[in-house]
Task: structure prediction
Amino acid sequence: MARRYRLVVIGTGSAATTVAARVREIGWSVAIVDFRPFAGTCALRGCDPKKLLVGAAEAVDVARRMSARGVRGELRIDWPALIAFERREIETVPAQRERRYREAGIDAFRGRARFTARNVVDVDGTVLEAEHVVIASGAEPARLGIPGEEHLITNEEFFALRRLPPRIVLVGGGYIAAEFSHVAAIAGAKVTIVHRGERMLKTFDPDLVDWLMEKFDRLGIEVRTKAEVTAIESLPGGGFRVHVEEGGGGHVDADLVVHAAGRVPALGELHPERAGVSVRNGRLELNEYLQSTSNPTVYAAGDAAQKGPPLTPVSSRDGEVVAENLVHGNRTRVDYSGIPSVAFTVPPIAAVGLGEEEARKQGRTCRARSARASEWYTARQAGEPVYGFKVLIDSDTDCILGAHLVGPHADELINVFALAIRNGLTAAQLRATMFGYPTAASDIAHML
Result:
């Protein structure tokens, strides 16, 4: 016999948990389903464990940079101990999340969810019928379609490495490649990045990425752009040979090859077509309310929806909006403007709002303030020459259109610019704000 609910949510990450909790608060019967440990990508396989590793890498990097400034002693990363710490920090999260569901009166099911009909979900033999279904199943590594693809490890497997191999190849040039390469290189590995694009981190300002690439060089990371991996071969004596199409071709030998070439909505085994939910080019077809265009009882949120940037705050906001639209009818849309994005390299690079090219395409008249700020006090006191900014200001309104930062504290400072963009603050208002000194925020007036 089927179990009936007003709402079934597929996934247990930020988007899924937000919508389930909000709807349950007003008395709806809610079930939530996940075949993996409860809590989703960010808490278990992404942001949180990554930041633990980055924190250790930053500590070592700071000590090395300050060795000529009175700091004595050589720090190093004890990889097994670091991974043990990271594992301890996250291993209790699924049970905590499950307890929260139980306390809220949300029925949690562990198993693989599959649509069998328009409003019916099968969870390993348990049938759930629902008035509404929310797909918040997250994302998964994209298939590359190359021979030897099975030898790639994912970000999740990287977080569980008990030993750091001496030679690592990262396939791709986005967040994962940039962040993991810095952690691994600071921990002592020889790292090579193979990326088919012209430059890494394409969502960030190209000038600032160029400045950041100097840190890749200092860390000994080899970056091969305009290079495509064509095959991965397992070698008889151990390790792998990564075949690369780069000019006349070539290869890189490695002990570990990591998938860092993008993620796509995790929809394959869900079979949304059985529920009449349209999918085009691997993405759900949704309207501005995050509702399926072909089955109005189904909504989606977070990385499974891919309407906004693949960021945890976006997933949470998607969940809030879907809950509002489920309860009150379609009246709320997500505003994806002014959302800060950070790659946690060492130092970090961050962006919010419009880039120069995007501003031009929109016909915006703006002035750009940009400088390499290696001689500013923020950079000098940290011994980090990679420090710079680009800020776009509307010429007519004096409002901040976009901000792009790289260097010490960029990951925190970008939030000030996000606040300005979301609230329409002007450059004059930011300049007039008295920030604590000496802090990175005290540099803002000089960036405008």
